[in-house]
Amino acid sequence: MSDFVASPFGVTDTGDADPAGNGAPAPASLAPEPQDLSAGNVWQRLDDALVWVGDRLNPILVKETRQALKSRQFIVTFTLVLALAWVWSIFGVAVIGPSIYIAARGLDMFLGYYVILAVPLLVVVPFGAFRSLASEREDGTYELLSITTLRPRQIVSGKLGSAILQMLVYLSAVAPCLAFTYMLRGIDAPTILYVICCFFFGSLGASVLGLLVATLTNDKHWQIVLSVLFLFGLAMLLWFGLMMGFAVLAEMGPPFQDQMFWIVNAVIFTAYASYFALSFCAASAQLTFASDNRSTKLRMVMVGQQALLVGWFGWYMFQDDVEPDVLLVYFAIAAIHWSVMGMFINAEFGELSLRVKRQLPQSFLGRLFLTWFNPGPATGYMFVVANLLSVLVVAGGFLIYNSVFSKVGVRTPRSVLFAFGALTCSYIVVYLGVGRLLITLLRRVSHVSLVLAVLLQALLVLAGCGIPLSIHLMTPEIRRDYSLIEISNPFYSLVEVLDERGFGFEVNVLLTVVPVAAGFVFLLNLPGVVSAVNQVRIAQPKRVREEDAELEAQRAPPPGPTSPFDE
Amino acid sequence: MHPMIELRGLHRYFGRTRAVCDVNFSVERGQVFGYIGPNGAGKTTSMRILATLDQPTYGDALVDGFSVVNDPDRVRRRLGFMPDYFGTYSNVNVREYLDFYARAYGLRGSERTRALSYVMGFTKLDQLAEKPIDGLSKGMKQRLCLGRALIHDPGVLVLDEPAAGLDPRARIQLREMIRALAGHGKTVLVSSHILTELAEMCDLVGIIERGRLLAVGSVEEIQRGRQTRQATRMQVRLLDDATSLANWLAQRDGIEQIQTDGNSATFTHQADAEAEAALLRAMIEAGLRVVAFGSQTKTLEEVFMQVTEGHVQ
Lengths: 567, 313
Description:
The complex is a heterodimer.
Chain A: H1 42-56, H2 59-70, H3 72-96, H4 106-139, H5 141-146, H6 152-183, H7 189-215, H8 220-251, H9 259-287, H10 296-317, H11 326-346, H12 354-357, H13 364-370, H14 377-405, H15 414-445, H16 450-473, H17 490-500, H18 505-533, H19 542-555
Helix pairs in contact in A: 2-6, 3-4, 3-6, 4-6, 4-7, 4-8, 6-7, 6-9, 7-8, 7-9, 9-10, 10-11, 10-14, 11-14, 11-15, 14-15, 14-18, 15-16, 15-17, 15-18
Chain B: E1 5-14, E2 17-27, E3 32-36, H1 43-50, E4 58-63, E5 66-67, H2 72-78, E6 79-82, H3 94-104, H4 109-122, H5 138-150, E7 156-160, H6 168-183, E8 187-191, H7 195-201, E9 204-209, E10 212-217, H8 219-229, E11 232-238, H9 243-250, E12 255-261, E13 264-269, H10 273-285, E14 290-295, H11 300-307
Parallel strand pairs in B: 3-8, 3-9, 6-7, 7-8
Antiparallel strand pairs in B: 1-2, 1-4, 4-5, 9-10, 11-13, 11-14, 12-13
């Protein structure tokens, strides 16, 4: 690439704009010239510092902020929030009347502001984030954005940054009113802060979900359907937020003194953070180019989620006097999580691009432990199975510990609990395995998209549950009790295991057939797994190596004396 | 050295529709390549693949030696793309729009300020800096899009119908801009329906129809290439009346369709350049006072009409 000296712009810069000749923005030579800060006054230095900071801000954030400041939608919403806050302040004070001097009525006022703040934070901001990305794709501006050097995660974080900025603006509009409620007494500062934090994280979570939903399709019709569904979800969130807020605040406020309150909050927050990271990575993966690795980061986040699940439950289960029935919650969460994740992982495309093959693990240990993070349904299936096994191992460890040390009586026998867990995992292994084989076969004859592949697996589960249930209910002789005809129905069968609290004939059959079927399906999937494992790293193309070497040489420090004896 | 643009066996199918089929060509640094074809021929698809907005079904395209399939990130740093249609942001003026893309390409501080200033000057947008994009005319938007494609000083420019909808003056200015860019070492791939303009600004031309590249080469090569396969139309002008020349030509082999018009005569000659030289020598030896002798070269439009059949996919 020509540097600016040779460019048609007639630039007089003498630096070598792009020694690599790659058309990339010049690394160092075109950077701002070092300035003598001491020469300028304080304002000049402040200005320089602000320019420096501005240069490092996400470009999307800068653009969206500029747009928002001129947009009618933002001005109207902001003015409305401000006006409503003022109206409520005047109206509330008028209603309270002279008792405002003696009675603690801060909470009453706060509830009004809570409603005023809830609508923009839980509906307007997340829907704005969704529309911001969806409209880029609809209007054709996204294509030009996607071919810049911005990375997908920068695009997503820029949109999120813009949402955060809007939240802060709305919060700042209502902040004086919230301070006013504190001065009225009846609500303390930690409660106000806690509610603001809940709003902030609720809005942020809904915004990242909105961005993820916006990346799901380019089709205008589907975008409309998704818009309606997302808006409905936000309405539900608003309703839930208002109900929860009123219930907690009107009753007694958050129990800050209770240790369990903080533990529950920590659990919720870590779970929130992990799903936030998963949604963020998924949205970025949806925006990245087809040949790039879209899976590994997502699987790393999933491993983090698994660690959180095992960590929190492990910590809780190894406390004194814990009833082992808590394992049912543990199994249920693990089953829902890995079933959904497994369906998406199974829907991935199996062929590895040359770009991905350049990054495959190469060493023996790397291939042993990291192959399962490589993109593709085969490695993904093994990844899910390994995680399910770890769920069972932790549960088994807890049950042994509990049987030795616990003095608390058990409601459900430990063996039944373990059988329940093993059966749950076996069902997931069977359905995901059959689903993967089905998708592989279908993809040999036709194109099966990611969404369609997920839907097919959901249909498979529905068929596995619905067909035997229909036959069962239409057969008068057996309709009252559990029948082995329901063996493919995990929900009914698992409930039966818990109901019997022992090992009757049906349960024994279930515990024999389903794990054996899981093993069989697993074996059927093994050839695919083996071929995925046999993928080896390929060398980088010569041109890529050349450029990397040039960039490395640029980054290397200039040769200079390394000791006092050097010239 | 590798070419700046190289298409290797490029195929693109949309379902059963063949948009691009086995397209191969390369463009060296500083060359302007004109991509010609009827609507639906596969020009835009090929260009979108080059711009990393689409993926080939088979084959590959390379920009400065980097694959658009496997190294799109490296390609994007080197390539500026101007699509035939582009959406714009609301509530953004010209300067903010270009500033955003400069930031998006990683330009910072004075580097960005300089790039903005040069691009706005080059595309003559500096007087419209504060004007909202929504209020720009078609021609101004085209300039803005060209400015956006140039903002990171890419080595390769892919311009899809840049002159569409422009008035004659703007077209001439655009043509001059493209030549200036090529003069400064940029490699330009440009598609257009205005073939006379392409003939003037392009070093190389490729004609595509129904996804297949029918001809590729310099404008002269394509014109000559078409004529060597078929009869060449010759034109001769004499000092005297051309009737004597017509009588003389009628006695020679391989000469058909003789027409005279005052001092000039045109005829079809079924031979190559060697034979043309021999014919001229024979005319002079025969005492004919020849003032001008040459083949009637076909325009790019004529070649295009001859090569393509007007099929649309």
